[in-house]
Write a structure and sequence with these properties.
Blueprint (H helix, E strand, L loop, with lengths): L2 H24 L7 H19 L3 E7 L8 E7 L2 E10 L13 H16 L9 E9 L7 E9 L3 H7 L1
Parallel strand pairs: 3-4
Antiparallel strand pairs: 1-2, 2-3, 4-5
Helix pairs in contact: 1-2
Length: 163
């Protein structure tokens, strides 16, 4: 990715942060619980992090409408369609953020991914990957990211082999 594109993404990220700050300052932002606000900040950071890595972002907080749950980010990395679960922490505690993607969450993400792929206009399904992106927003430190590409597969058997 070229210098100009990197600069443009940085400007977009700062503009989004400034707009959110103005909204909060004017009192127009809905009051969110601290953990939900942290999660949204992490998803925003993950969005721009992946864009800088060359991913083409196609959806944020996607839900099917008839299935419970949502997918934090959906992006293309070349021909690969990536469903990304973002986990955000404000401290580096003993449990890494990515460990919280349990079997129930993986099952939900698989169900939503199947629904998303079915709605694509292509005749054949693209290759799909499930990623977990841990975002660390520790006060006083630079944002840190840990990206687990292919963190789990279409079945629990593949998950077991991965761990």
């Amino acid at each position: 990715m070229g210098w100009f594109e990197q600069m443009r993404i940085g400007c977009e990220e700062r503009a989004l942060a400034d707009l959110e700050w103005v909204t909060r300052r004017r009192g127009h932002a809905e009051e969110l619980a601290a953990h939900l606000a942290t999660g949204i900040d992490g998803e925003n950071a993950a969005f721009f992090h992946l864009r800088r890595k060359g991913y083409i972002m196609v959806a944020r907080r996607w839900s099917s409408g008839d299935l419970p749950g949502d997918v934090d980010l959906i992006a293309w990395q070349g021909p690969m369609l990536c469903f990304v679960e973002v986990k955000t922490r404000t401290a580096r505690d003993t449990n890494p953020a990515e460990i919280t993607v349990d079997s129930h969450k993986r099952s939900t993400l698989r169900r939503l991914a199947r629904q998303y792929v079915r709605q694509l206009p292509q005749e054949t399904a693209p290759p799909v990957r499930f990623d977990v992106l841990s975002v660390y927003l520790v006060p006083g430190e630079k944002k840190a990211f840990q990206h687990f590409e292919g963190a789990f597969g279409w079945s629990e058997r593949e998950d077991y082999e991965w761990r």
